[in-house]
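The instructor's notes for this session suggest beginning with a concrete chain rather than abstract definitions. Hand out the sequence below and ask the class to guess, before any prediction is shown, which regions might be ordered.
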Amino acid sequence: MRGTPRKISLPRRLIFDLMHASTGVPFVSLSRPLNIRPLLEARAGAKNSAGWAAIFVKAFALIARDEPILRTLYAKWPWPTFYELPRSVALVAIARVEDGEECVLPQRVAAPDALSLAEIDASIRHAKEAPLHQVRMFRKILLATRLPWPLRRLSWAIGLNFGRQRGNYFGSYSVTSVAAFGGGELHAITPGPFILSYGVVEADQSINVVIRWDHRITDAAPIARVLSRLEQVLNTEIATELRGAWQPAEPKPRRAVGS
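After discussion, reveal the predicted structure:
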């Protein structure tokens, strides 16, 4: 049967490189439904609620602020070591359509625990809607993807195996989901060390969350505690921010003349 040869686009070549970089990472995963009724009530009452990706990006970063293991990478060079980052760096999977082809590109969000939900959401929306050349992370990753094969492999090796560079280019955790396309339990693959994915909100006001992680970094018991803490953070810190973010500020009291 004679088919039609098709050129491999830059976004698909990026996925090739990503899958190659993920080979050999000993991933394990843990999933759990989280009851998020207070969060849903807060989100329903917000006039301009942040998207789910922004919510999970910030919630995980808030936990990682107090859990250094969630900011720890495995680096091979100059010798195998664990490398603890001073702050979280998230990579968010952005689904786009470029030249008629569906693709996924990563958007970097540095120190999301120090940002408002509105700022995180704006960064994600910018990556979804702006032309490729206007998104800094897209320009950088696609520039590397244009390199010839040997140089691409070298650039990825440097970015992955030195702790500082890995934090700069690949972050400390990734957030992805197919909830916008009907949901499902997604077990994504990246170079790690942590990947969080979430499903659709169920009728019982729960949402299923999956965390995959590099087993060299930590074990299942700490991740089980992270999921419990995630439920708590979503229903407290995140819900509180959603309730107050869009309320008008109270007018400041005026000082009397001469006081």
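Then share the key points. Residues 22 and 189 are 7 Å apart (CA to CA). The chain is about 40% helix and 25% strand.
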